[in-house]
Amino acid sequence: MGVLSVIGLLFAVFQANSTLRYLFPEKVWSHKTNTLKKLDEAKSTFCGVELDLVFDTTTSVFDVNHPPDKSNGLSLDTYMKRAGSSPGLKLWLDFKNLTRENETIALKSLNLLVAENDLDKSNIIVESTEVCLLNEFNKSGYLTSYYLPGNISRLEKMEQEKVLFETQMVLKSCPQTYISTEYKDYELVSEYFPEEKKLIWFTVYGGLNIISARVLLYKLLLDHNVEVLLVPFS
């Protein structure tokens, strides 16, 4: 095999998400696993999956959907029944519309689904931007995560410091199991929250070149305070 071929092979291995999954099997989960087809494929490869939820207060049903995507009519009940066939599969629930008005009924509905499908609450993360509303979910036995404001690292310095200070104040009053953010904000978030347990997602390279981005992914996976990295499902 020629030198260029070897270099090409090594680069392919370096930049492949499957390599991350192989090296960090407990940390690398499937992102936006919002269909049964994706779930069936992901649960044979990943130890955990992330899905998006919208709660309908009229029907008390969780719709597996990421707005503004069009709903495909998949309920969380159906999803959990399928997920339950893989004991120990971990679920990261990105709760898109948690509010003070739906908090109580949503928690009650989730508790019923978990009990009916014989799932372990300690394998379920409930994530929301409404951090203080997660407290009751935490008390009920779920892991919880504060979905941090987005694009922090791209803000002007003064606005950045303001957002980070406000986030520190919120977490002091409403501490959660985890904080969650995109990989491009990882280094800044780690600077301000060095001891917080973190959940990170990687979707696209954005402004980083491929090599810089992959180095950053390996760096954060080696961080003992990073519990999960979501990678695009394929």
CATH homologous superfamily descriptor:
Phosphatidylinositol (PI) phosphodiesterase
In terms of per-residue confidence, which ranges show pLDDT below 50 for 5 or more consecutive residues? 6-12
CATH class: Alpha Beta
Q: How many domains, as an integer?
A: 1
Mean pLDDT over all positions: 92
Total number of strands: 9
Q: Structural class, from helix and strand content?
A: alpha/beta
Number of helices: 9
Strand content: 15-25%
Q: Terminal Cα separation, in Å? A: 29 Å
Task: Estimate the helix proportion, in percent.
Answer: 25-40%
H/E element order: HHEHEEHEHEHEHEHEHE
What does this structure look like?
With 234 residues, the chain is α/β, with parallel strands linked by helices. The protein has a single domain (3-232), classed as Phosphatidylinositol (PI) phosphodiesterase (TIM Barrel). It has helices spanning 3-15, 17-23, 36-42, 76-83, 103-116, 135-139, 157-173, 186-192, 210-221, and strands spanning 28-31, 48-56, 61-64, 90-95, 124-128, 143-147, 178-182, 198-201, 226-232. The protein has a 9-stranded mixed sheet. The two termini are 29 Å apart. Mean pLDDT is 92; it is low at 6-12.
